[in-house]
Amino acid sequence: MIELLDKKVQKWVDKNVVVTGGASFIGSHLVDKLVDIGANVTVVDNLSSGRLENLENSRDKINLIKKDLEHVAKDEIKLIFRNQNIVFHLAAVHGGRGYIQKHPADVCSNLSIDHHVFEGASQNNVENIVFASTACVYPDDLQLRVGSNYKLKESDSNPKKLDGYMSADIEYGWGKLMSEIQLNAFIKQYALKGCPVRLVTAYGPRENETHAIIALISKAVQKLDPYPIWGDGKQERDFTYVEDIVDGMMAAAHNIFDGTPINLGTGRRYKITNVVNTIFSIFGWRPRKLKFERSMPVGPRSRALDIRRAKDMLGWEPKFSLEEGLRRTIEWYVSDDRVKWITKKEFLLERQ
User: Fold this and answer.
1) Whose CB among 227, 236, 254, 277 lies 3.0–4.6 Å from 287's, allowing a Cys bridge?
2) pLDDT attached to residue 338
């Protein structure tokens, strides 16, 4: 059986893998994939934002440790990572734009969470640690102009070049950038192996309404009219489907060990109004009026990632178009228990 498996899959069979934040939106998809291909998975999550329901497909096949990695003793953190091969570190205080702008002190606690995880991985000589970073590490002044063709390159925020200019997107972005620097410090001092992957506007099943795509879908499910959109709707983002992110993170685990950051995005930018129109088309419903809430936080005006490094070093590129990703996400959302006011049957009838 194993001889017939793809070489990429064989690398994971019987590997001991830790996923911090494994009950989260992205983390749970990663856990399911790892379990499906034969890895031995331990999930570490305090369940502050993660949901046990996200792990229902893998719950009886994993080791679940409920632990707050910000407040953890050194002997505990060392024990968590003992005899582990690969660590995917996704645990963080995070949320959509509204959350991270209103919780600047809370998101700064990620610095201590990350330090504890890097320390535990280093003490146990893990083969590699893949750190979930963010496109928020990039300077705002590169993301000011709607209609820009510029794609953010990893060199625009280089955690290895400490004597040059650096900037990032509010406290959340600065914290992630500082943790990339932390990771490189552990690599230099303790020979830890690791790789930061920079994620951008991830979406898909299991995400919650604090993030843009699910919030927009939720408003369409409720048939809000006028339909509210934060900002003027012209802001642009590089939306990346969760399955593509999982594949990219797994590829990074076997290819990058020296702290080199990797962008995981699509390299395409979409205006929020275009995304909204695609959602309306999928639902077969459209409001009479859009209401632009210009006082609400929107972040950078235009953001898209250069993904050439991921293609060259990982052999990775996204597979899902925005429309296909939205369709899959909507199908999940209207069938999830959180939606009490609409049934999947009603949704499908509306689409016919």
Assistant:
1) 227
2) 60
Q: Residue with structure tokens 């229902």?
A: 56
Whether a cis peptide bond, with omega within 30° of 0, leads into 226 is yes
Closest-CA residue to 135 (of 233, 267, 284, 324): 267
Q: pTM for the whole thing?
A: 0.92
Closest-CA residue to 252 (of 1, 8, 7, 74): 8
Alpha carbons 150 and 4: distance in angstroms, whole number:
43
Q: Which of 150, 117, 109, 115 is nearest to 42 (CA)?
A: 117
End-to-end Cα spacing for the chain: 43
3-class DSSP state for residue 20? strand
Q: What is the mean pLDDT of residues 248-254?
A: 97
Contact between residue 268 and residue 303 where contact means Cβ atoms under 8 Å apart: no
Q: What are the residue ranges of helices labelled H in the chain?
A: 7-10, 25-36, 74-80, 97-102, 104-107, 110-123, 170-190, 212-221, 242-253, 272-283, 308-314, 322-335, 344-351
d(CA 210, CA 217): 12
Rounded Cα distance between 193 and 191, Å, is: 6
For the residues 321-332, what does the mean pLDDT come to?
Answer: 97
Let me know: does 308 contact 246? Beta carbons within 8 Å.
no
Output the six-digit token pair for 291: 């209401």
Please give the backbone phi and psi of residue 60, each rounded to the nearest 5 degrees, phi first.
-85, 5
